[in-house]
Amino acid sequence: xxxxxxxxxxxxxxxxxxxxxxxxxxxxxxxxxxxxxxxxxxxxxxxxxxxxxxxxxxxxxx
Length: 62
Prior knowledge:
The protein contains two helices and no strands. By secondary structure, it is mainly alpha-helical. The relative contact order is 0.06.
C-alpha cells in the first residue's frame, strides 16, 4: 500500500516540488468572489438564527 501522508496521521504531507503549486492553489485565501459568498451565507445563517430565537422567545412568553 502507499504511504498515507494526510493531515489526519499527524504528519505533514511530503512536499516533492512536483505538484507544490497545486497544493498551494488549493490552500490559498479565498478569492474576493468566494469571500463575498461566504459572508453572505454567514449573514443568512445569522439572520435565520435570530429569527428562530425571536420565535422561541415569543412562544416562551405566551
